[in-house]
Structure formats: C-alpha cells, structure tokens
Amino acid sequence: METLMFFLLFVMSNMVLSTKLSNDHLSRHSGGGQLVELSSSYCLSWRLATETNNLHGWRTVPIQCLRHVEAYMIRGQYDSDVKLIVDEIRNYIDQLVLSDDGMDAWILDVDETCLSNLYYYEGKRFGGDPYDPHAFKEWALIGICPAIPSILGLFRKLVETGFKVFLISGRDETAFGQVTVQNLHLQGFFGFQRLILRSEAYKGQSGVVYKSEIRRKLMEEGYRIWGNVGDQWSDLHGEFVGNRTFKLPNPMYYVP
Asked: What SUPFAM superfamilies does the entry give (predicted)?
C-alpha cells in the first residue's frame, strides 16, 4: 500500500511539474509575441507621427523600428503610397485651367521626390544611422540615383500640360550642380524650367527659410505656383507654398 501511495504521489507531482513547465513555455512565447506586436504597433504610430509632422527634429529611426522602416520602403507599401498621392495630384491637375501666358508653375523637390537615394540608405540601415554628409556626398557625386517612377510620370504630365516645372533642392550648388543635372537627364527628367540648388547666399539657412525665399522670387517674377511636392515638411512650409501642397512619405530622415 505504501509503495502504491508513493507511486501515485510521484506521478501526480510529475504531472504538476510538467503542467507548470508547459505553462511557463507558453507564457514566454506569448510574451514574445506581445513584444513583437507592441513593437509593430509603436512603429506604425511613430511613422504616422513623422508623416503628420507631429515629431520634430528626430535624427535617426528608433532601433526597434529599423525592420519596420526597411519593410515599408522595399516591400511595396512605400511605392503604393506614392502612387496614391500621385493619382490625387493628377486628379487635381485635370481640374485646372492654365492661362496662355506661360506663367503657370509647379514645384518639385529632388531627393526622395524626383530621385531616390534608397540604395544609399540601405547601407545606412534605412535611417538607423546618423546623417553622414561626407558619405552622402560621395554617393550623390556618382550620379546614379534612380527616378521614383510615379513622380517621373507626373513630371512628364506636368510638362505636357504646359506647367513650368521648377526643381528646388537643398543640395549644394557648387558641389552638386553639374552631377544633379546629369543624373536627372539620365533618369528621363527633360524639360524642366529651372533646377535651383542652394547657393552660397543661402548656406546656413533652414530648409523652410531657403525654399520660402526661392518661391518668393518666383512669385516676384510673375509665376503662379499651382502645386508643390516634396518629401519633407520643410519643402512645403513657410511662405508662398503654392495653391496646393502634396507630402510624399519619407520615414528615413528629417530635414528642418
């Protein structure tokens, strides 16, 4: 009898221990899943906050969001978002009636608007590393930035419709002037009215101040700015922004 009781107690204790280990195992896995879910939820919120300009002055993508931003940029969602925005721009253009004086203007930014630096930022963990001006200069001087397809199509429509298209960039005029023109032509951007880069007179100014001043000069020349497209809020804020502005997504870096 004592032997039987000992055996039963042994079996029951093993069952309790096995159940506890199993529950601990499930708890650990469930907790990991919750962590992944929480991280994904946070990164979606973080990206929304950057695109709606509620986060200012951020320098790098949060470490827990590196995979999220990478997936967004290379797995189709970024391209889909840009296409939807461009479709809306096209609808807006179709509603406009241009004058015959040749002074109807449209503004496009260059980097992450006309041209993509995604290959460069892939080596910078899609914004996970701090901005490196020397490394970016080396990349940009190669002059092989690919066009963003939806924007290239939009650019061609703008030119064909009769807009004077101005490309305004924060790139340094002395360092990048010639290579930027060549890169744009290489990618099919022909027929823009003017490429305007940052000259010595505007060095040290924020993007908002610099681009506002350029737009002011265009308005003084008599141009009517019907639209303005850029990936940074500094492209679209300030004065003389145009009749409508369109913000393209860019979760990889922030330009004040």
From this structure: HAD-like
Token pair for 227: 């639209």
Residue 229 lies in a domain: yes
Q: Please give the Cα distance from 47 to 24 (Å, whole number).
A: 34
Same domain, 123 and 242: yes
Answer yes or no: do 107 and 166 share one domain.
yes
pLDDT tens-place string over residues 111-139: 999 999 999 999 999 999 999 999 999 99
Task: Indicate if 189 and 144 belong to the same structural domain.
Answer: yes
Q: Count of domains in the chain?
A: 2
Report the amino acid identity of residue 204: G
Instruction: Round the average pLDDT of the chain to a whole number and report it.
Output: 90
pLDDT of res. 39 = 80
Amino acid in position 146 = P
DSSP state, residue 251: -
What pLDDT was estimated at residue 34? Answer: 55
On whether the pTM is more than 0.70, the answer is yes
